[in-house]
Specification:
Length: 81
């Protein structure tokens, strides 16, 4: 369970009943970030995606696997951003 920025409680299953688009995840991430008290500066969902990809690559994940996880068109996009 988590408290949203609107002050209501809900669980993850309720949060993802709608289609999980990047916009949906960005909105949910902002609520989770705020509920955890994490700073908003550099705390966007997009920044989280970069952190996730960087962590995978630095731990020797295959670039093609990371590309698929991030839904990038090419591995080059994954490696250059």
């Amino acid at each position: 369970m988590m408290k949203t920025s609107a002050g209501t409680w809900r669980d993850l299953t309720e949060a993802v009943r709608q289609e999980a688009t990047d916009r949906t995840w960005s909105r949910e991430w902002a609520d989770w970030r705020d509920a955890a008290g994490w700073p908003k500066e550099h705390g966007t969902f997009h920044a989280l995606r970069h952190f996730f990809a960087t962590t995978l690559i630095t731990n020797h994940a295959e670039p093609q696997d990371v590309q698929r996880m991030l839904r990038h068109k090419t591995a080059r996009i994954t490696l250059e951003t």
